[in-house]
Every structure is written in C-alpha cells, then in structure tokens.
Amino acid sequence: AQSVTQLGSHVSVSEGALVLLRCNYSSSVPPYLFWYVQYPNQGLQLLLKYTTGATLVKGINGFEAEFKKSETSFHLTKPSAHMSDAAEYFCAVSDRQSGGYQKVTFGIGTKLQVIP
Amino acid sequence: SQTIHQWPATLVQPVGSPLSLECTVEGTSNPNLYWYRQAAGRGLQLLFYSVGIGQISSEVPQNLSASRPQDRQFILSSKKLLLSDSGFYLCAWSEGGTSNQPQHFGDGTRLSIL
Predict the structure, then answer these.
(1) Most distant CA pair in chain A: distance in Å?
(2) B44-64: per-residue pLDDT in tens?
(3) Which of residues 42-61 of A touch B (CB under 8 A)?
(4) Within 10 A of A111 (CB to CB), how many other CB atoms are there?
(5) From CA A114, how far away is CA B12, in angstroms rounded?
(6) What span, in angstroms and rounded, lies between the C-alpha atoms of B112 and B99?
C-alpha cells in the first residue's frame, strides 16, 4: 500500500524567503511522485512530477523538488516566496493497480501563507 | 490540447433532492476518469473511477453513483442527497493505461446541502 505524509498542515513564510514544503511517501514499488497546487475554489494544478531519471525536478512558477529514495522524501522548494504563492499544496504518489487504472494517493495538503 | 470541463461551479440543494454533476474531457481518447470529494483538512477522497465506457468502480460505499455514457463524459449522481454529501467535488482525467502521468483536474463543484 502506498501513502503520503505532508509535515505541517500550515506553513508561513515571509515574502522573499525560502519555501520548503515537506513530503514523505511510502510505496512498495518505485513511485511516481507529483506536487499539485490549489487556489481557493479551484481544482488542483500540476506543479511538477517525478517519474524516472533526474532526481531534481523543476516545475512551474519557480518550484522544484528533489526525489531522495534513501529518505523516501520529495520535498518542494522555491528560493524566494511571492505573494501569489499563497495556496494549498498537495503531494501525491502514484502506483498502477490491476485493471489498468492509476491509483493516486494524496497527502492532506499544506496551506502556505506568505507574509508581506 | 486537452481540457476538462466541470459544472456547475456551485450548487445548493435541499436534503433529499437528486443530484447530477457532469464532467467532460476534450482533446484525448479513452481517458481514465475520476470523481473525488474534498473536505477541509482531509485531502482528496477518491469516490469513483472509470477506465472505459460503462465501466465504473467505487472506492467507498455511499449514496452516490457514477456513470460514463460516453468516452469523455463522466456523471456523478444521487437519488436523495444527505447533509453529509456537502463538499467540494472534483473530476479528473489521466491517460489510459499509464501510471506515470499526472491526473488533470476540473475546477470543481461546491455542493452545499441545506
């Protein structure tokens, strides 16, 4: 069974400061990992994904994440927070199930507050 | 490019009334389709998924049902809504037969039951 743990349901950073959102996963097979962002009353938007290859993955809006197998982590970072980054962020792990569908397990989300 | 449409954006319904939420995908064929419910502080709960027309799998027992009458159409229904059905409902699609591609989400429906 796969699972995702997001440490910190709420994170506050100052504008211009480093953003670090933590995600640890559990999976019985090599995982596919994703980060999504959700703005109020909107759907989830893909920020970045890790499937295979380079372990440092760059996404949209200046975000990046590093897959660390030894630590079973996929933390999301951004060097300098912007006010528009205030949103909820979800980490997700994917594993293929029998029947051909993609089972994705989402973390409970981390709300990012950016303080001016 | 692929797009996903979900409607209505908001809905207020009395307890005991029926429900129909619709989701359509454009620009792809034979997608996997999903219905999620999102409650505050609980992340996303998968309700139903479909790998093809007429093929529906339910993840949790409830008074909701789903149907896929066409390849790119996914409908969430209920005959009688309960107060506990309130929430934010999200439709999503992914490429069929793969697990390394992300799911893509619609803008959601905010359902309030009175």
Answers:
(1) 49
(2) 999 999 999 999 988 886 789
(3) 42-46, 49, 51-52
(4) 16
(5) 32
(6) 33
